[in-house]
Amino acid sequence: MLVPITTRAFAGVAMGRLIKAEMNHGDLNSPLGPLELRQENGAIVRLKWCCAPENYETPLLGRARLQLGAYFSGDLTVFDLPLHVKGSDFQRSVCDAIYAIPFGETRTYGEIANDLGASAQAVGAACGANPIPIIIPCHRVLGAGGLGGFSAAGGVETKVWLLKHEGAAGLLI
Fold first, then answer.
1. Which of 39, 53, 113, 123 is the 20 to 30 A CA-CA neighbour of 106?
2. What is the pLDDT of residues 24-73, one digit of tens each?
3. Does the annotation mark 127 as catalytic?
4. 18 and 66: one domain?
């Protein structure tokens, strides 16, 4: 069972003392190019398009790699990984709303904004700052009149590829 993003703990400053965060990273190849995963304190905190200079295998990174591979091969529709989004409460609430969008479905920035009592522009900015794309599927969020943006490598072309992969491309026409 996935623990909601907003309830994940993160090491930082506790009782006036700095707590050192455990961080590991690893990379994998995907149909969209090389991806780097970052783990801190038992949760995935980042996925980005590039390669890590070193690869530190951990059980969590191995699980994340297997799940991403299964997603890209069409065998996985829901990720089951501990996640932590660093950011404001609003950023985490937007990421929670995005994570809840089912595979192959989409929502608009405005729909999420209405649910959260925020503006569509604020939701768009939070969506663009999503540190764990694909796993937190910001590609499933569209503008009211079209695709909207996509801040990951490849831009909108990557967003279209992901939507086609999930069978949601009919929503683009």
1. 39
2. 767 778 888 888 888 898 999 988 887 655 566 789 999 999 999 999 99
3. no
4. yes
